[in-house]
Amino acid sequence: MKLMPGRLDIFKRKNNKFKFVDNIEEHDFIKLIKYDKRTNKIAESALDNLIIPFPNFEAADFNKVHDWNAENDKYGKSYQLYIHSLRFVSSLLLQYEKNEDIKYLKKAEVFIESWIKFMDSKPQSEMLWYDHPVANRVQNIIHFLYLAKNKLNINEKKYYKVLRKHGEFLMDDSHYNYNNHALMMDRSLMILGNILDDYDLFSTGYRRSIETFWYSFSSQGSHLENSPDYHRMVLKMYLEIEEYLKKHNQTFGDTINQYLELALDFLPVVARPDKRIPALGDSGNSALGRVKKYRNFSDSELGLTIIQKDEKSKFYLSFISGYSSVTHKHRDDLSLTLFYADDDILVDSGKFNYGKDIRRRYVMSPEAHSTLLFKKEDYKLVKENRFTRKVRTDKYFENENYTLVQGINESFENSQVSRLIIVLRKYPVVILLDKASSGVEETVYQNFNLSPKSKIEEYRNDFAGILTKSGNRVTFTQIGDVKEKVDITSSQTEPVQAIVTTGYGKAAETKQLRFSAAVNNSNSYVFKTVISMDDSLNIQMTDIDESALKISVNGEEIFINI
Fold this sequence. Notes:
Elements: H1 39-47, E1 50-51, E2 60-61, H2 77-84, H3 87-99, H4 102-120, H5 131-148, H6 156-171, H7 180-195, H8 199-216, H9 228-247, H10 254-263, H11 266-270, E3 297-299, E4 304-308, E5 315-320, E6 335-340, E7 343-346, H12 358-363, E8 372-374, H13 385-388, E9 391-398, E10 402-409, E11 415-424, E12 429-438, E13 442-449, E14 455-460, E15 463-467, E16 473-478, E17 487-490, E18 492-493, E19 496-497, E20 499-503, E21 506-509, E22 511-519, E23 524-532, E24 539-545, E25 548-553, E26 556-561
Antiparallel strand pairs: 1-2, 3-4, 4-5, 5-6, 6-7, 8-13, 9-10, 10-11, 11-12, 12-23, 13-22, 14-15, 15-16, 16-23, 17-22, 18-19, 20-21, 24-25, 25-26
Helix pairs in contact: 1-3, 2-5, 3-4, 3-5, 4-5, 5-6, 5-7, 6-7, 7-8, 7-9
């Protein structure tokens, strides 16, 4: 086998192609997960034939029969995906490593052998041969083979064929999309190439993982799949793969590694003041686990802006406008979240089940976000927005008095909307200047998705006041002529409305404020809104001309160029 320069020692020679297990060393693979506080529970449940596909999921009962088609309505497709990843087997293997009790290793073998038998029966199962579970299953099987050598009687020929079958699937470009699942596939191909002494497998995974990197990260080191949780996951995978490569005298190179260093700063900056990851896109609200950094951030390639002040004020605003990938993307453009003084004010819907659950469809829609939406017309997410930028962050500016950001959505067939956000540095005040136009008769709604822990205190045509969970008062004031009364949207199930989600199968009821206005083909401001988080402030806003306005707060005048 002729290897490329610099890789002459990456593959070990084996005399017999079916004698590969004895040659597997710990540095030859990457464990799928690490031991944590949930590992023991999942492993012990598996000993009792109760399969927990993913932490905190409800168990599938495998006592009477190993039901590899087990489903659970609460978790949608995710349930089958994690079952066929053999993720629970990884917990058995980690538990065996921790206490060296052979029963965990033998139980892992029982489940893997059962899965192979299921596979050989050629069942109709959507997640049996799907990118994510195939890639992760490879890691678990190789981890098992490493631990089982000299401990169990392994049919190497059978496992060789099983891994080869996985390799053939992973090599097939028709199964490959440039996203986080693609990187899982590439990681497993590199591991398989090493284990099976197959340079084609390794080189394909290595090459594609580099291509996927340049497709998946912005010039600022932001992962482009619209969800901070996936930034964390993909960054972790790249860092782990780089460590794996170094053990075999290989690397992604200086340029990618410098971008990975840049990417390490993303989560500390975009995390909320409560050190939770914001529930944007398909993210939950998991803990940051690192030191929070307080500085503003705006990445037009990602379509995300974070405006914050300092640790003392605990002011935080996120704004979404634009995207470069449709993966994990909601129709949440021009939406904002707002957090102040340890209180959620405006919240977003994040992670939920994947699949056809009507709640999933709802939380991906504009109606589930604090944005502008039309009564009749919606917009579609398209891959081409990476180049056309019909939805984009159009402007970002900051000085000692205010921070300003503007987003535009021109991807409607007949209409368009834009939102300009002004955040005052000295005061807890947010100003929204919202434009909308349409070539047809339309109504535009200005939707505010309230925290489930807030209460609506009062409302009228041009004003609404809410109380946060801490009892702080937040006001929403419309400047100018608002002809239609504000609506309060309450939570309901048929059709689904006014819910927020934060995890698999987790949904909470909330309420929404919704102002409305008729629009025409004149691209003019339909809402000028002042959100104040300090009820004692006297705030006035005056237009100077089309490009400037004056804000007066308790008599202090601030001039803003827009």
